[in-house]
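chain below, 437 aa
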Amino acid sequence: MNPRLAAARALAAVLSGKASLGSSLPPVLDKVEPRDRALAQDLAFGAARWQPRLAALAERLLQKPFKAADKDVEALLLVGLYQLFYTRIPAHAAIGETVGCSDKLKKPWAKGLLNAVLRNAQRQGEAIFAELERDPAARTAHPRWLQKALKAAWPEHWEAVCAANNAHPPLILRVNRRHGSRDAYLAELVQAGIAAEPCAFSRDGIRLAEARDVKTLPGFAEGRVSVQDEAAQLAADLLELAPGQRVLDACCAPGGKTCHVLEAEPGLSEVVAVDLEESRLVRVRENLERLGLSARLIAADGRDTAGWWDGKPFQRILLDAPCSATGVIRRHPDIKLTRKEEDIAALAQLQGELLDALWPTLEVGGVLLYATCSTLPRENSDNIAAFLARTPGARELDIPGPYGLKRPHGRQLLAQDNGHDGFYYAKLIKIAASGRG
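prediction:
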């Protein structure tokens, strides 16, 4: 399959609300020649990353919007525009190859339309983009609701956050403490000719100068190193783990933090990892097996404690709550297309329900670490403020440190160009068994 066609079909599924790139792209790539897979993935991710800007350009050049049944043609146009303005692909190749995909879509009528719009974009695009600079949503390539939300929440930082969201993410590794130190692994990378440096905030983190196939890394198959963003790596140490503790990792998939907890403290009595569906636990199980670790995996709704909790209290709980994922847009740019403003209230409610349900399973004196990969206060500091107000037995613990921004509650990390993702942490201690546990 032509890589442009593959990218367009994956993107069309996203535009139609039927899939994410993470779910739609892999099956499509199976039909693409191996040498073209990287190009197909770049085209799909790139078009999604710049879609708000490209769509504004297309709107200026189209006489009328696409019909709902023609999302595939719309996606193909976005792929073509992305090639013209954000890649080094020659313009004649970008236009010719993109237009040629119309036959494969069984929509030959689209050839003339795509050819005309792409050639007009080639002539007028830079001038139109200059006009669009006055529109902050188009200029930053973020949907308007999100651009406004980021500006309201982070008036001094929002443009840097948007720029980081549009950048390609670095490849960050987590060294397995059970197999040696970070310094020793860094020395091994240098010896192998792989440029890398230690992360600034995670004591296990390493940033590679260039992305590469992780299977080519020394000791990857043996579980000596994993891929995990630096911000996510902070959770294990924030939990203040100690031998004998029973730990709950709620909403655990894909298992990166579950594994890091087990690596960080081999003397834990048990780690219970819960996620909503058995299918989501497949990756968790694979990660545990590669690293030679074990945890008790449970497929259940974390809120339904009567259905999965055995009544034995936990000394530590990690609640990595489902969220808008607005802190990891650079890794999942289709979030710009799939996430809607109205989703935030529903997510905040779910997060609050999880906090309320899990709190009774925590031992008095125990600690719950609340985490999201969101940059929106409604899911983060506002949520924790509301929980503390309704939960007499809960108190907040300070999170000191050189990273992130201290908030009225918790600490917010904003996405950094060539650094960590956007992330939020709040640390709560149970001082008494209130009516909520």
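The CA atoms of residues 168 and 406 lie 26 Å apart. The longest strand covers residues 362-372.
thats it, cya
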